[in-house]
Amino acid sequence: MLDVARHFITTTDVKHYIDQMAKFKFNYLHLHLTDDQGWRIEIKSWPQLTNDRWEHRSGGGKGGFYTQEEYKDLVAYAASQFITIVPEIDMPGHYECSFSCLWRNLSRS
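RE: above sequence
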């Protein structure tokens, strides 16, 4: 499992982990994409989820997120090495980031 929700890493680093996994014939990568500390995958209809305000919540350094294109590239890269990426989106637990975004949108209605 890679916990990119709390400690974001670049797609280059994720690919490095995929390469290492392939050497040892691991075939599933659990990618923890959401938590209180951040939402790390782009949802185009909810851009507030990837807001910079979630950058430094747990000492993981600068935050960030994967665009839909970057995520598709990671999935394809992993598949080329016979590895399946299993995304984890924690709902309803660990919801601070998503709830904050939702609350701001509802309060404007």
